[in-house]
């Protein structure tokens, strides 16, 4: 159980779906559940890694399945729907519909595509629309964000009965995200779009390319393909929205999106401003190391085995500190990402880039209960940009990484509880944008 913390921490590292053959893993996952449903437990048992086979027998698989069907009824559909890198393992999520109820499963595979774990996560809570989202004040339109060879589903949210309104482009953090930046039952981008629209400000949010075109991210790529190309296209689209002021477009970058917002601003020099929300000011490697240290200390496991495992993780993460490829191939994978990706980020100085920006206004905001990007980064932004007259800073002690109010820091379990983006935060963003007219 204690080792789980390191796996959770490494889950924060994942910015793309894993490079393993996704279709192959989906196929093997679905076949495993077919064996279970057909009560072919010996065949299902062969799907496990040899080490795991010694821990669980076909008879125990039968007992497990009997307990599941006794509670949920016979299976109706069991389909693999999502894949994520989780440390050195591959996690496949299966949506299960049974006669009496629904139940999801998470199947962990090793690199040999053998099962090493099977889990039944608690049923997810349901998203709740925030009280500040007044649907009488805005409308939404489904569109596509187009770039060469790519088409991403998007939503344009605009205020009703408002002329010449500002527009905000919402740019994701790490990971293959949907347009709402969903994490569990939480949908921070959906909250932001509704909250801002209720204040007379439009927005564009879109599905991240890594979710729709996962197959393109199995070789060499950088944040250009992952983030900035689509963000630039979204800015261009924002300028064409009926009723919007094309000279009053802002970029809201969350986490990795915030880190890259200064680069996006250099690519779109006529934007009115950038909002850096929970944005790393340090190298991404340093952020990941800090995340892992936090989770390790939270686990309070002082055994030598745990310390050794932790040091192995840190050593692997430190390999990402590349500023040149040298004799390393561009597509060599380091903690789930190609070497070229790390070089591109490591030669980028986001604080220095923001410092050179002359036109766009900048709003730097940070949550004090954020366990993924800390106040250390906020302080670095503050120190680096303090002399710029067009920069606003605000620290929200109670907010976590999803920009929702919390009473304390956590181990990530907060993300499974529905809490909307802070209304105070949305009010501040809206006031800041309107002050720039």
Task: Provide a short characterization of the protein structure.
The chain is an alpha/beta fold and about 425 residues long.
Assign the CATH class of the largest domain: Alpha Beta
Query: What is the SS-derived class?
Result: alpha/beta
If helices are DSSP runs of H or I spanning 4 or more residues, what is the number of helices?
A: 15
Low-confidence stretches: 1-20
| General shape | globular
Please compute the radius of gyration using only Cα atoms.
Answer: 23 Å
Total individual domains: 3
The third-level CATH topology of the largest domain is: Rossmann fold
Q: Would you identify the CATH architecture of the largest domain?
A: 3-Layer(aba) Sandwich
- Give helix and strand order, one letter per element, not per position: HHHHHEEEEEEEHEHHEHEHHEEHHEHEH
Tell me the total number of β-strands.
14
The largest sheet, given as strand count, sense and whether it forms a barrel, is:
8 strands, mixed
